[in-house]
Amino acid sequence: MSTTLVIPHTEDRPTRYKALIPQVAHLIADGSDVIAAMANICAALKTTFDWHWVGFYRVVDDHLLLGPFQGPVACTRIAHGRGVCGTAWASGKVQVVPDVDQYPDHIACSSLSRSELVIPIHDRQGRVVAVLDIDSIHLNDLDNADAEHLALLLKPLQSLL
After folding, report:
1. What secondary structure letter does DSSP report for 102?
2. Is the entire prediction scored with pTM above 0.85?
3. DSSP code of residue 7
């Protein structure tokens, strides 16, 4: 596969997801390394949607540790149950935050982030082993429809875990 993504020039997110999902699946199909797959997923999402920050945090011992990402520098460690990412890890549930300033325990790695979406990634035993974290500079920019599309996009990654 070419390393260039082919994404329609449209603001319609469902159309862009429809084009992106099979390309990401093909891109990581060799299954050689989960970190490499995470890195390419971040690059593909950042390129396609130009969100402020797209990255993974991996469960390591008793905290989330920064993994592959695209965007400005980020927090390195996040405690279990702390902030949006730690809450997604602890609950095992998607977290959609339309306005991070209204989230009581938000960890502000960047003051430019206004909305956030965090998707827990489960291994074959059902344990959360990582989270995908997406930050936008726009309020109400990320929603459940994004979460549903991203869950489809992440399925090939989950098969590597």
Report:
1. G
2. yes
3. -
